[in-house]
Amino acid sequence: MSFREYAGYDGLGLAELVHKGEVSAAELAEEAISRIEKHNPAINAVILKLYDVGRAAAKAPVDGPFKGVPFLLKDAFGDLAGTTTRLGSRFRAGTAATEDAALAKRFKKAGLSILGKTNVPEFTLLPTTESALYGPARNPWNVKHSTGGSSGGSAAAVAAGIVPLAHANDSGGSIRIPASSCGLVGLKPTRARTSLGPNYGDVLSGLCHEHVVTRSVRDSAAMLDCTHGYEPGAPYAAPHVERPFLEEAGRKPGKLRIAFSKTNPAGSPLHADCVKGVEETAKLLAELGHEVVEAAPPLKPEEPGSIFLPMWASWLASEIEGEALLRGRGPKEDELEGLTWGLYEIGKQVSAAQYLMLVKEAQAMTRRVAGFMETHDVWLTPTLASPPIPLGLIDINERDPLKAFAPAVDYVPFTPIQNLTGQPAISLPLAMSSDGLPIGMMFSARFGDEATLFRLAAQLEEARPWKDRHPAIWN
User: Fold this and answer.
1) Is 150 part of the annotated catalytic residue set?
2) pLDDT tens for residues 256-268?
3) End-to-end CA distance of the chain
4) Whole-structure pTM over 0.90, yes or no?
5) Which residue of 311, 318, 409, 472 has the fewest C-beta atoms within 10 A of its own C-beta?
6) Which is catalytic among the residues 131, 151, 171, 174?
């Protein structure tokens, strides 16, 4: 199998070849390994190579829907027994996990061959993947630009054709931001649809959700079929699923009432290419028979940032304090990036009472957004306020978070909303910037309604296909 043949298939396509005996899982693993060796020096997507693990998995008698498909885990919440998960931080000790995460077990059961772990920013804090420990992940479409974050290494690997799908998680946009930046499909599922066990019940009071980035809608749907479901002891569960998500992706969406927004909730302007993307997508949706109206949920200008930033800082402080307990000491000066230090200091100042007030504010915002969604099946926005930012725009060594984030303060106005509300949302690669960079369009649905998103996403994939659009590094 030549690389062009390999990269032309999505995950289910490769698995079908394995099931038919036209190619072996071992051959696919070697193809992916050769691709890592060829392209990783340029894009820095894979930071831990687990070739022996992947080769062993390729020989295992597992017969899942993704049998023999090469795969990568993210260096965050992707625990794999015998390997380290450092969250991109020098302060996180390189201690091997003693057991697989619940999600990793489900990935294995699906038949995936795990070949490595992917690049992340320190403690997954940023909408770009740059860290002192690993260095920047580079966008295959233009290596001077960001892959997005925090699942940027995973997105870069998929966009470059190394693997057809890779692990990602999302606490403020970390699946959807890289999907938008690298021209991929990125679904953030409904809260509690996938498990963070056994080490976490939830992260950030329910803001963090697990899934993958993919090149096709059907891979995203099929993988969620493999990984969703309640784990014993989880603090809550997602709503019941009526039928398999892959089946939903094959059904017509019917006529939907779709709201679209081409303005930033905080009032700052959006990049012209993002506005154009929304307008063209809204026009396409109308042509497909949907009712399309310009409208937005009743958000306050300061939302979601006024809630999101202190909650994130509090979580960061708890993670650092937890690591300090394990190590018997706090972080040294050279073990945290400057921006991480600044957010850590803020987090330590947030009291328990203040944190619970933030949760209350998030729940109040959720009720307003849910009220809006009662009369709209889907809400369309650009995933980001601009095309992928240049690397280095956010100074990870700046201790003042306001100064560090200032150049990109309006970059991520939409994605944190669905983390706070728990709604499912999907970024689709429906637009391109004037200088050839991907721009994702984001679709949000009601709580628990991934089915509508998969139906609509499949319809859009058919109407405006992106399968043959890929970066030059692909060749």
Assistant:
1) yes
2) 999 999 999 888 8
3) 15
4) yes
5) 472
6) 174
List pLDDT tens digits, range 90-144.
Answer: 999 888 999 999 999 999 999 999 999 999 999 999 999 999 999 999 999 999 9
Average pLDDT of the residues in 407-416? 94
Is position 174 annotated as part of the catalytic site? yes
Active site residue 74: yes
- In sequence order, which residues have a C-beta less than 8 Å from that of residue 8 and are 6 or more positions away? none
Percent of the chain with pLDDT over 70: 99
> In the prediction, which pLDDT does 4 show?
62
Q: Which of 131, 150, 181, 386 is catalytic?
A: 150
Residue among 74, 105, 108, 117 flagged as catalytic: 74
